[in-house]
């Protein structure tokens, strides 16, 4: 498929791959991929519904049905496969999001070093294994936001994926999982697996709840062990606290409460911004830090920082200008932080003129 191709309103089934994307700037809108024309019965593609591979960039799959396929609803693979967006789709369900038409593996599978891809606003339910699987060393800086995973379209009834809602494993790092509803799945809501699966940020999700935030918690009597404690808060500020036993191996050394334990690049604020936005970053030790702004096409816009900084929490502002001092146009931008062996992307943040 060539660069810049736009596909709309297609019914795609009975192929080896539904749609194979290895070029940049491909858009797929309002298609049924792996079902019949009514969106109520499976007509499988043999492997994946939509495959991004071999350096595909800036692709978009939107408002489509990706269900009934022989492997994954969508798969994103490869070291230079980045800045692709899967948004506002139904993956593993029928067209109205009320019943399952499973993909045989995962709803969305990101692996083999794919970086800085965006999975946002989808209904991902009814798949045979995980709703979303992110796997492999250096598969990093992917953003998973505002999806319903394991429920029906309204988030009011379970329509679970067979295994985990979201699984991050095999050393995948620095991914953002934020503001998702993850409930009704067969195993674990969000599962982080394997040594080296570090620096992933899991925040502001509703795990094991319904759309209103109600949940059931079952705790059996544990042995006497150190405890890990979680606090759940509803929108009115009421809290419930639960503890579970924790076993861990700790290397004893000097501890300073004012120094972060990990590298981290936070989301910019405000977002959208006009004319200035602020980014916060955290350093557990002194060293060289590089912060660079890119546009949606992966082109460098502004080198915000390239120098040595001390450990601690730091803030830096961007005034919306490029390296030449020119005001950038309104649109989507991303920021990359590199420090020592750590790398993280954040986005999307939106500038307005």
Descriptive overview:
The protein is mainly β. Helices cover 0% and strands 38% of the residues. A hairpin with a 5-residue loop joins strand 24 and strand 25. The protein is globular.
Structure keywords:
2 domains, 38% strand, eight-stranded parallel sheet, 0% helix, Immunoglobulin-like, 353 residues
Brief rundown of the structure:
With 353 residues, this protein is mostly beta strands.
SSE arrangement:
Layout: E1 6-8, E2 11-12, E3 19-21, E4 27-29, E5 32-33, E6 50-52, E7 60-62, E8 65-66, E9 74-77, E10 85-87, E11 90-91, E12 108-111, E13 118-120, E14 123-124, E15 132-135, E16 143-145, E17 148-149, E18 166-169, E19 176-178, E20 181-182, E21 190-192, E22 201-203, E23 206-207, E24 227-233, E25 239-245, E26 264-265, E27 277-283, E28 287-295, E29 300-309, E30 312-318, E31 331-339, E32 342-351
How much β-strand is present in the residues?
35-45%
- The quaternary structure here is single chain
Spatial strand arrangement across the major sheet? 1-4-7-10-13-16-19-22
Coarse structural class: mainly beta
CATH class of the largest domain: Mainly Beta
Indicate the CATH architecture of the largest domain: 3 Solenoid
- The total count of helices amounts to 0
